[in-house]
Amino acid sequence: MFFSCSFLVFVANFLPVGSFDLDADSVCDDAEISLRQLRARQLTNATEGTDGACGGLEDPRNADCAEGVQWAFEKGLKQHPGWYLVPLGTISRTVPSNAKIGDLQRIFFCGRAGKTRCGLPPCSCTSPPCNVCEAPELVPKLSKAFTRIKQFDFTGDAKKEFDVVQIPDQNMTHSCSNYVDDGSTVFTKDGKLVVKVSSACPDGTCLNSGRAMSRDAFTYGIFTFSAKVPKCNSVWPALWLLPENSKGDGKYGPWPCSGEIDLLETVNDDSHGAFNLVAGFGSRGGCYDSAAVTCNACAPPSYCTSTTLADAEASHLMVEDVNCAAGETSWKEHLFVLLWQRDEISAFVDPTLSYNEAGQLISIQEKLRHGSASFKTYKRPTTPTWSAVQDYMNKCFPGRHAADAPFDIPMKIVLNIAVGGYGGAPCFWGEKTCAASCGAAVGSELIISDISVWQ
Fold first, then answer.
1. d(Cα 368, Cα 358) in Å, to the nearest integer?
2. 87: left (phi over 0), alpha (psi -120 to 50) or beta
3. Which of 39, 7, 42, 41 is nearest to 424 (CA)?
């Protein structure tokens, strides 16, 4: 939920050529640009049926893509490696510096680069079979029985369990939310925790909202949230984890160097939520050259932000359709589950949880949906935007980090409701439109009936 200007530039550069209409060089000139604008592209998530046929660029069926593939191989990889990092990593299982021309043809065939797709996959590539765009995702198995070590207490004062954060969103996501601690934005009611957009600021340029951060921090485990999430009226609620404090400070430096895990963030009337990992590294100005990595602990402005939202559509998990016009301003209560393990982090929506006689959690089974994902797993070796920080870790924290850094340190649970601030939203921090265009968000509530942590 932290998005700086340099972050947006970095994400823009991660997307393939022709995948969206944002000029990365002008990102910082427009205060209204946000990740919302990076979500409007289609991805190919299945094995393409080509009856086993393959062909080179000289094949007539590849005539439309041949020039683009050739340019990408000869010039694109050198001039704009960030455009290809994510699709090459997730599909071809390689990095730009090692990519073969068949790897480029493969991502064009899968619709993950260029404006036109190849009609046939290559006959040779780094990681065959070359006609597979994304392998079927397997539900992760639990390596042991997990014991509940924490069930948050939602009786009495919310501050028993949570710090109520006071901070304007002006320099974070640029939403209209002014996070305050006056008893109206974070409180308990009927045995539940409520985070609320409570009122408009007197001048109409912001909305008073709630942001809570758990007092306890955790490393690895299973996190279960039973939550009724607000929708419509340009709200942007989130369930996420962050190290130490609201600035994201941690062992490896301030945000984004010490990481962020977003179990769920969703905007306005979207029927899905996004599951996202954020990391970062110090740099002398280059985000793709290991020689540019520097141990400045993400000191502004010279750092790079690495996020799985560079592959935005792949981060989406279906939750529930809403009809804002009919007054459906929240999802029903759903179960959101985060499975955080070494080298592997997964998110689930409404899974089935199984327990043994001792009450230990022994399995997580995905909810079966037709045509939409209900779980997602990021594995470090096959998630380029996660492994991208390893040069920084090895250089700056030798012998002091695990292979899955920065996701090897204690993190706290964060709950908040931002309003506006995403690309395409009708309101942004400091504008009269906060009250005029997004004032209907006042009264929106994120209602949590249970948060439990299992280890």
1. 27
2. alpha
3. 39
Instruction: Name the β-bridge partners of 230.
Output: 330
Instruction: Tell me the sheet residues that pair with 379.
Output: 344
On average, the pLDDT of the chain sits at 87
Tell me: the pLDDT tens digits for 320-335? 999 999 999 999 999 9
Please state, in angstroms and rounded to a whole number, the distance separating the CA atoms of residues 371 and 269: 19
Residue 382: predicted pLDDT? 86
- Euclidean distance between CA atoms 55 and 120, whole angstroms: 6
- CB count, 10 Å around CB of 347? 29
Closest CA to 319 of 305, 333, 340: 333
pTM of the model: 0.82
Token pair belonging to 262 = 């977003």
Structure tokens at 335: 């179960």
Q: What's the CA gap between 56 and 45, in Å, rounded? A: 23
Pair 129, 50: CB distance under 8 Å:
no
Encode pLDDT of 275-301 as tens digits: 999 999 999 877 878 888 999 999 887
d(CA 121, CA 95): 19
